[in-house]
Predict the 3D structure of the following.
Amino acid sequence: MGRAALALLISLAAFSSPAVEVQSHGLLFEKWLRDSFFGGYEPKGYTQKWDIPAAFNPDHGGIPVNPKAVKYGTPIGLGDALRQFGIDEPFLLIAGFWQQVSKEEKRWVNVQAVRVEPAVWHKLWGDLQRSDLEKLDAVIKDKSLSLAEARERVQKLKAEPPYTTSLIELNPKIDRSQRRLQCSLRFDVFFDQLAPQADRSIQEQPKLFGRDVPGRFESAPRLITPEQ
């Protein structure tokens, strides 16, 4: 394990927050992916464009890789909506789905690796243009609006075309600590649109590129507070 990743895991372990434990679970999955298939690549930072650049993916298409860890049946969080909208190259989306099997344990129950072409990705956004996202983002970040006013205006916009044509969900984050426009992909949309031939059921032993995915990591369920 690289020094940066090790330090991050140690710092995560120092906290008892359930949200941090879920993040650690995802980090362990991503670390296993990088070590097993992508030459042990260590990210330079957590704001870089791709989690795993194309140069470190010689064996699975030579394209950048975006790994995601998510609870089975729930939406896949994609991050910043404007950044995701701007993707204009093929990429490998690896989605690892887990279930909480006990109070302290999660188990990987389905893992999929999907090559996503730009034309397919753009289609998921429906009739949305970048200017539409920028308009929504501007309302979210308008500090002249109270939190309640910003939420109300954003929800009104989202309920109208072209926002209603998008299969990618727009997830405004508006609270005392943040004003951001993020996005996600619903579980069924992921399989229907990006992996229609894949088995979406719970699997006893998921595999990725012919290799067994490690079964379990100790991790408590996440508690959601009203502002998360």
